[in-house]
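Lecture notes, unit on protein representations.

Consider one protein chain, 336 amino acids long.
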Amino acid sequence: MADEHIQILEFEKPLAELKKKIEELKVYAREKNLNVDAEVKPLEERAGKMRDEIYKNLNSWQIVQIMRHVKRPKTLDYVALMIDDFQELHGDRSFADDKAMVGGIGKIDGISVMIIGLQKGKDTKENLMRNFGMSQPEGYRKALRLMKYAEKFNMPVLTFIDTSGAYPGIEGEERGVAEAIARNLMEMSRLKVPIIVSVIGEGGSGGALGVGVGDRVLMLKYATYSVISFEGCATILWKDATKAAEAARILKPTAKDLFELKVIDEIIDEPLEGAHKDYEYTANNLKTAIVKYLKVLVKIPLNRLLEERYKKFRNMGIYERVEQQAQTAKEEADNA
């Protein structure tokens, strides 16, 4: 993007400075009509190696920083690149139209689908309008209305997750945000059409889960998915939000972590430096995966589809039963 230089991440600064020096050298050579290829080539090779080394060894907090890049594509960006004949639908038919939750009908590879997604803004003005991607109860009720519409007309549902969580304000509590999310979890678990979930940015807490139950869960390479925001976790554990990087490490929120834990089904590749570098590349990869799974899911008999969806979420994660270990240890201590 033309103005992406406005945000250079901390760990990218050495590479950015080297690239700047290379560009300055090229500009100087053009102005003075000099040939500096011999000087530029080793610098460009060094920059390439530095770039590969940086992005090959990213830690959890660095991935969080890429995920939060101001130019990272949002739900409606993917809709524009992946979906044909999109028609947005509005309102929960009870209270209001939540701008943080978007949805509508469209086609992907010729298949009619219902699209539902959490939408952040691209600047301060839009973020205020979209409530920073934090949906109110009416957003989840709008999502459920659209899911039921999809079920009635036998359309698969595609959901896109990008939120730090449901809006935590008092008005959300007054209108029953916990109930709205819980109802979505229940209804999505038994919705009689295929559901594909894509985590495209920040997957935060119950706000993400409110549209996160599906037959397949996909996740972009630099997206995150966690039970709580990293700053919130740090505040609870250490009374210090500045320890968010440590929280990101222990929460294991990255696509690689969650694939190993069987929370997600596939990691979708992004450009090496993040989706903000190439919207089309990322969207094409995501579309290919969605279409692949759609063509499989629509052929599965309904009873089996629902049974497999139930088993999928029951079997998520890796855990150990420690009761027997504790009993054995006690018996050994008693016999000592």
